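REVIEWER CHECKLIST
Item 1: Sequence provided? yes
Item 2: Single chain? yes
Item 3: Sequence as submitted:
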Amino acid sequence: MPRTTLTHQTHPTHQARGSTARPVAFAVGLLAAMLTQQAQAQQTLTVAAFPAVDEIVKSAIPAWKAKHPNVEIKVVSRQFTDHHTAMTTALSTSSYLPDVMALEIGYVGRFAQSGGLDDLAGSAYGVQKFKSQFVSYAYDQATSRSGAVAAVPADIGPGTLLYRTDILAKAGVTEAELTKSWDSYVASGVKIKAGTGAYLMAHARDIKDILIRIGIQPGEGLYLDSQSQVLVNTPRFVRAFELARKVREQKLDAKIAAWSNEWGEGFKRGTLTTQMTGAWLAGHLNNWLAPSTKGQWRAAQLPEGAWAAYGGTFYAIPKGAPAANKALAWELIQMMTLNRDVQISAFKSQDAFPALLATHNDAFFDQPIEFLGGQKARVLWRDASRNIKAVAVHELDAFAEEVVNTELDKVLDQGKDIPTALADAQKLLERRARR
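Item 4: Structure as written out by the authors:
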C-alpha cells in the first residue's frame, strides 16, 4: 500500500511537471526570439551628411526599410563646413565615427591620404567592378595612383555658365560673344557694365577658379601632382591671375564672396550677370536664392570650350567605423549610388546631377527647365559631364587653395605683381609639402 500510495502520489506530480515544462520551454523560446528580434530592430546605421544630401538619404529610407525592416538609418546632419570639420575631428581621433560618411570631392583626397577611409576596392567591397557604371571622371577622382578607391560618387557638378538674358539684351551682348573666348567674355563684361551698370561676375576669383582647371595633364591635380610637386608657378596660374586682375582693373566684379548674403542679393536685384559654377546652382537659384528671377536665366557651356567640374558628393566608410556594420554600410552606399530610382529621385528633388550613367537616358534630361526659360539645359550638362577629365585630388588641396587665394587678393587689392605672388605661393606650398 505504501508503495502503491507513493506511486499514486508521485505519478500525477510527474505529469504536472511535464505539462508545465512545455509552456515554460515555449515561453523561453518565444522570449529568446523576441530578444533576438529586438536586437535586430535596434541595429542602426549612422550616416553623417550635409544639406541637401541629408534629405536624399532620408528619402531613400523607405526603400532601405523594405529590404531591411530591422535596420534603422540615423542621419546626422550638419551645415557643410561644420560637417567636414566634424568628420576631420572624428577621423583624427577615431571617435564618434559614422558608419557612412558623405563627403564633398574637395575632402575625399585629404581624408583618403590620411588613411582614415576604407579602400573600397579591397576584397571586402570590390567597387572596381562597378567602375564602368559611373561617369568616368567622377570615379577617377576618388582613385589613388595605387588603385585604392576612397569613396563612391553619388552626384556631380558639371561646370556651366549661367547668365541673365535680360541684362545681355539690354547691353546688346549675345551668348556667342560671352562664350567665344575668355578675352571675349571679359570684353562682354565691359559692354555690360557700360550699358547696364551690372557686374559681369561676383568676384574676380571666380575666373581664376575655372582657369586653373584648364590644361591639367594626367597625374596632375589643381595645385600638386601625384609626386607632391607644387604646380602653382606655372602658365595656367599665370593666365588665371592675369585675367582675374583684368576683371578687377576694369571693375567688372562686385567683390562679393559666394554664399554671402550680398551674393544672393546680387542675383535677386540683377546686379550680377553671370556665374560660373556647377549645374546644381540653377536649382538653388530657383528654390531659394532668387526664385523671382525665373525665366531670366539661361545656361551655356563655359567660355573657350572649357570643361570643368564644380563639386560632387561621395560616400565613404571610415576605417574606424564599427566592423559589425560595415557590410550593411556598403550595401547602403550601393543603394545610394547604383540604384537608378534613388539617383533619379535625388536629381528631381534636389538637383543632384547623377553620377550613375544608367540614369543619363532618362526622359527627365529632355524636360525643359522652367526657371531657365524652358531651356533643356540638362542635356547641355550631360554633354559637359562626358568631356570633363578627372583632376587628381591631394590632401593639401584645401590649404593650397587658401594660399593661392591669399596671393590673388594681394594682386587684386594691393597691386602685388603676379610673378612674385605665384613664386611666394609656390615656396610656401613646397615647404608644407616637405613636412
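Item 5: Key structural point noted by reviewer: The longest helix spans residues 2-41.
Item 6: Recommendation: ____
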